[in-house]
Amino acid sequence: MIWAMKAYQHAEVYFNLISSVDPKFLKLTKVDDQIYAEFRKSFGDLKIDVLDPEELKSEPAKAKWRPFCMQFDGVVEDFNYGTLLRLDCSKDYTEENTIFVTRIQFFAIETARNREGYNNAVYSRAMDTQSAAAETGGSA
């Protein structure tokens, strides 16, 4: 049960982060450049804005993901810990929009989403909400 609480807290912190900082400036690990390069080399055609769970969990997908993930053993701390990932990056974490993945899969996909502009929708929505609240004298 503790791992589930940690995974949820990680998801909550990350979503708050991309809601308050322009995602293109975020650095998730010390090796983001390496993770991103290897991810796009291995999964160049993977659609990351709205993920298909089969691309992560089917047997053929697992066979492709396993070598990608293992190259980060000893490079990324806790690379194989379980983490929550949003399927549709324009939406928040909900039961329907969340899948359980390894931490390195999370870093790979979220780094790509940040660099390729897919997480901008979350940040823009949060900034619009803040602006609207400021204009009406409320707080976001």
TrEMBL record:
Gene3D superfamilies recorded: yst0336 like domain (1.10.3560.10)
Domain Polysaccharide biosynthesis: 1-123
One Gene Ontology cellular component: cytoplasm
Pfam family, one: PBDC1
PANTHER family named among the record's database cross-references: PROTEIN PBDC1
Protein's name according to its UniProt entry: Polysaccharide biosynthesis domain containing 1
Organism: Pelodiscus sinensis
Gene name of the record: PBDC1
